[in-house]
Amino acid sequence: MSGELDGTVTASQDLDLHERLVRDLDAAGARYRLIDHAPEGRTEVVSELRGHDVAHAAKCLIVMVKLGKKRTRYVLAVVPGDARLDLQALKALLEGTYVAFAGREKAERLAGSVSGTVLPFSYHPDLEVIADPALLESPELYFNAARLDRSIALATADYRRLASPRIAPITLAP
C-alpha cells in the first residue's frame, strides 16, 4: 500500500484515510474486523476498550534517522503495544548518525492522521515501515484505523502481505 498524502491533517482527512484503508483491505481480500469504541489513542487504554491483550496492539511510532549531516530518513516503527521502541537499534539498523522521534507536526503529515491514530501502513513514499518480529507472533493485530473511535483487528498474515514491512528487532528487552 503506497501513495502520497500531502498537506495538513484534518478530521475529514482522517476519515478519508480510514475509508481508503478499508477499501484497500477489501480489494486485497484481507481478513479484518472493524471495532467501534470510545475515542482513545493511548495503546494501553484502547487495548482494554477493544478487549485484547496490549501485546497484540500495533503501536506505531514515526522516527527520524539522520544519515550524516545532509540526509534524513523517516521510519514508521511498528512494535507490540507492550514494548518500548529501541531507538539505538533502529539507528544501528539504518546506519544512522542520530535518531529521535519525529516532531508531532512532521509525524502527522507523514502518517496522514493525527497522533494516536497512526496506521501500521505507509501511504507516504518517504516513510519506510519497519516492524519488530514480536509483533507478528499473534494471529491478529489491533490498531486505530486513522480514527480515535474505530479500530481494526487484522489477520497478521494479511498485514505482513499488504504492508510488506522490513522485519527487524527494534524493541528493548523487557
How would you summarize this macromolecular structure in one to three sentences?
This protein has helices at 11-27, 43-50, 87-93, 104-111, 156-163; strands spanning 32-36, 58-67, 71-80, 98-101, 127-131, 140-144, 150-155, 166-167.
Note down, in words, how this protein is organized.
It is a single chain. The chain is globular. A 5-stranded mixed β-sheet has the order 4-2-3-5-8, with helices on both faces. A 3-stranded antiparallel β-sheet has the order 1-7-6. The chain has helices at 11-27, 43-50, 87-93, 104-111, 156-163, and strands at 32-36, 58-67, 71-80, 98-101, 127-131, 140-144, 150-155, 166-167. It has a single domain (11-162), classed as YbaK/aminoacyl-tRNA synthetase-associated domain (YbaK protein, Alpha-Beta Complex), CATH 3.90.960. The protein has 5 helices and 8 strands, in the order H-E-H-E-E-H-E-H-E-E-E-H-E. With 174 residues, the protein is an alpha/beta fold. Strand 2 (58-67) and strand 3 form a beta hairpin.
